[in-house]
Each structure stands twice: as C-alpha cells, then as structure tokens.
Amino acid sequence: MNAPDLTADLLVIGWGKAGKTLAGALARQGRRVVIVEQSSRMYGGTCINIGCVPSKSLIHRAEARDPHTDADGAYREAVASTATLTGAMRRKNFEMLDTLDAVTVITGRATFTGPDTIEIRPAVVSDGTPGRPRRSHRPTRSPA
Question: Which end of the chain is more exposed for a tag (fewer CB within 10 A), N or C?
Fold first, then answer.
C-alpha cells in the first residue's frame, strides 16, 4: 500500500466479534487502533455476513413460508431479505468503529513483514481484479 507508515497501540486483522469489541473499547480510551479487513463485504465478521445471521434468516424464512406459495419466488425473497439484513448489519458495524477518531479502518490484506510490522496489499474486488485499499480516515491524535 502506498501510504505513510502508521503507528498504533493495537492492530486488529479481521473484523470478528473479539477484534471489533477490543478495537472499540481501546479507541474509546484514547488508544490509537488500526483495523484491517480484506473485504468490505466482511465488516462485522463471519457471523454477520456468511455464518450465523444469514443461515438463521434463511431457515426462519423457509420455516415460515406458506407451502402453497411459489417456492422459487419465496427463495428469491428470502435471499433478498437476508442480503438487506446483512448489509444493514455490516454498515452498522463499520460505522461503530469508523466514527471513532482513534480508529483507522483499512480494507486490504495484511501480512507480517517483521515482529511488529505489517504490509497491507490492496483488497481484491468481487470480480477477482485488484481493488484500491480503502482507508476510511486517519486518527488525528498523536500516539500515547
């Protein structure tokens, strides 16, 4: 990533439940936090995006479906409804950290290059082509 070096009190790689919770807590204490997620489609982690939430939503819709309705239409509606739900949750999770001044959100793939150094490569967009790393903003306070 062609960006200036960043220094942080905490680096979180991946946007799972534990990492986002710790990142938010430390940022609210004034610690400088950088969170790196390889895909903007995964803000919020596995559970929200491709695990618990979508599977439970689809199961609920299947169990609640009137057996006399069109199965293909019910399926399309269930998938669309689930996509809307996970999209809303993903946006909310992103905003929970991105609005904190002490947090820098970077969309890209992090690789350790030393014991306390990482390199961030551009994210890959859904069609397989390299995307530009997304950096939401830079913390304004100096490191503690």
Answer: C
Question: Which class for 16: exposed (0-12), middle (13-18), buried (19 or more C-beta within 10 A)?
Answer: middle
d(CA 122, CA 25): 27
Token look-up 């979180």 returns: 12
Sign of CA dihedral 15, 21, 22, 26: positive
Closest CA relative to residue 61, chosen from 84, 88, 81: 81
Tokens of 90: 């993903």
**What pairs with residue 104 in β-bridges?**
34
* Per-residue pLDDT reduced to its tens digit, 40-91: 889 999 999 999 999 999 999 999 999 999 999 999 999 999 999 999 999 9
